[in-house]
Design a protein that fits this description.
Blueprint lengths: L12 H4 L20 H4 L4 H4 L6 H31 L6 H18 L1 H9 L6 H35 L8 H24 L5 E4 L4 E4 L6 H46 L8 H40 L7 H25 L1 H10 L15 H16 L1
Antiparallel strand pairs: 1-2
Length: about 375
Amino acid sequence: MRLLNWTGDGAPLALQSRAMGSGENEVLHRLGWNVPKEELIHIQEHWLKFSEPPASLHFLLGLVYIGFFIIAIIGNGLVLWIFSSAKSLRTASNMFVVNLAFCDFMMMLKAPIFIYNSFYRGFELGMLGCQIFALMGSLSGIGAGMTNAFIAYDRYTTITKPFDGKLTRTKAFMFILIIWLYTIPWAVMPLTEVWGRFGPEGYLTACTFDYLTTTFDNKMFVGSIFFCSYCIPMSMIIYFYSKIVSTVFNHEKALREQAKKMNVDSLRSNQNQGSQTAEVRIAKAAITICFLFVASWTPYAVLALIGAFGDQSLLTPGVSMIPACTCKFVACLDPYVYAISHPRYRQELQNRLPWLAINEPAEDTKSVATAATQNNEENHEQKA
């Protein structure tokens, strides 16, 4: 990989020092102009062709990430606390919720690296900070994707097969173990450069896996991680939720037809309608979170494919920062989707933090189907 050396004695004067003026006289250099020689070798030549952004843009992104950090740490911290400590929420299905919150929490724990780099306007923490940032991003991103896929599977079995093969805590733990055994190699391989590598991107304040090197091995890595970390969880999510929608529509159609034959408006009692409401709200929360995963990670998938197999001239530093922000944004939204849509979680929040004034009705906190699920889980565990 050929790199531009803009730090030597033969480099243009404007690239060796910053000439600061006021207003229109401020000189903007190319990205990487202030990076030490020993760190410059880690930066893709592609990024070094672009001018650095104005300082105000760095500061704006830093402030955005501070907001992301605060919102995500509080939201996911609450989810981890409530779902782990509340006995009524310690079900097998909710183990996936805790795992997702842990992934989102980890995703934003790396934000201080980006914030520090942004306020110092570049690759300030060097390759060590870059590797920590990219490692945490790979673990949390791929882990969240696979967790969303298993949440979709759990919702599918709960709704389409409510009395067959209930998920036990042991089975859920094994699924979570599979998720992490699947995720870890995709983070370790580029970290150790066994296959792929990590490097800075965009304004050199964020890092991810290298999708710009055009060697055959690197293209194979990008293609493989795209398929395994994006296509597989995406396909599982689409398949399971399409089956859920199909099942629900067919069930509702059958109920309407039967009600018509019996000359009644509905076969549902008021109690069943309330129970259905709780189940539907939980399903909506899961669907919303999985949709957010698709919407937030698709830009990164497209970016990586363009870098490895397409026209790299389309990838400006500013463009590459958009997917970096969208995937952090979803880590902020996930816990609040549950706060809005998960009735039992809202009830626990109301009990423990009454000053939030959530006002969740007690009778809507536990549906008949949910109670049956929890009882079956306990029976399975007692037999085990």
